[in-house]
Amino acid sequence: MSIEAANLDVPTYTVAELLKRLDSLVNLIKSGFDLFVPEVTLGTQQGQLFTGYVSSFESGSITLVQEINRQLNPSVIVLNSGNIVSVAFDYDERVNELLDPKQPLPYSTDMGPLDFKRLLHEISEEIGKKIKSEIEIENTLDTKAETIPYLCNSLNLLKQSIFRIASDDLGKESLKESVSKIQLREADTVSFELADKTLIFNILATGQNLSLNVNDASEQISQLL
């Protein structure tokens, strides 16, 4: 074993736990949360290996989508979940956060307004710790069951964008000097504004897709600082 592999803090997994965790991820994505399901290789009792992305667990069956050629329709394989004896995947911190059964998933399918307030507070603290300055995040949109996934996705995009800007001292200092509050506000288009040290994230109230990625969002915010 190499030194690098020996130093990896790989959790103790079981096949049953991993399959259950993948099932939870799929359910969150179907509920509207923006998460990714890592590519996995499932091994059967007969020694066959199938690589792809789990898209559903239904009645003891696993549906696996294989993106063999993105220009063509993907292949779909349905496996009996009771026949799976191994799960293989490329390990990194991002994947481990989603698959480690000892770590809570970032969202739950039954999140309510209070849960979202807690998440708002947690991310506010994370951002403040990152830029070494207190940041208040205010949500002015209605928090309803049908919009919570969208609001969570908006909040995560905001966090990842700010973390990208704060990847060096110059970015941290620019944020610290320019922003003391962040506000989620309803608007007709998705965009950012900066007024009186308040970074305003304009988002739609309808729960539509954000139409922004982290690169675009961080670029927009950077231009305001």
Briefly, what is this?
The chain has helices at residues 3-6, 15-30, 93-99, 113-131, 148-165, 169-178, 214-224; strands at 40-44, 49-58, 61-66, 75-80, 84-88, 136-139, 181-186, 191-195, 198-203. It has 225 residues and is of the alpha+beta class.
Count every beta strand, where a strand is a DSSP E run of 2 or more residues.
Answer: 9
User: What do the pLDDT scores average to?
Assistant: 88
Question: The biggest beta sheet, please?
Answer: 5 strands, antiparallel
Distance between the termini: 47 Å
Radius of gyration: 20 Å
Which percent bin holds the helix content?
A: 25-40%
What would your notes on this structure say?
Strands 4-3-2-1-5 form a 5-stranded antiparallel β-sheet, with helices on one face. The longest helix has 19 residues, at 113-131. The model has no long low-confidence stretch (mean pLDDT 88). Helix content is 38%, strand content 24%. With 225 residues, it is α+β, with helices and mostly antiparallel strands. It has helices at 3-6, 15-30, 93-99, 113-131, 148-165, 169-178, 214-224, and strands at residues 40-44, 49-58, 61-66, 75-80, 84-88, 136-139, 181-186, 191-195, 198-203.
Write the layout of secondary structure elements.
Layout: H1 3-6, H2 15-30, E1 40-44, E2 49-58, E3 61-66, E4 75-80, E5 84-88, H3 93-99, H4 113-131, E6 136-139, H5 148-165, H6 169-178, E7 181-186, E8 191-195, E9 198-203, H7 214-224
Parallel strand pairs: 6-7, 7-9
Antiparallel strand pairs: 1-2, 1-5, 2-3, 3-4, 8-9
Helix pairs in contact: 4-5, 5-7
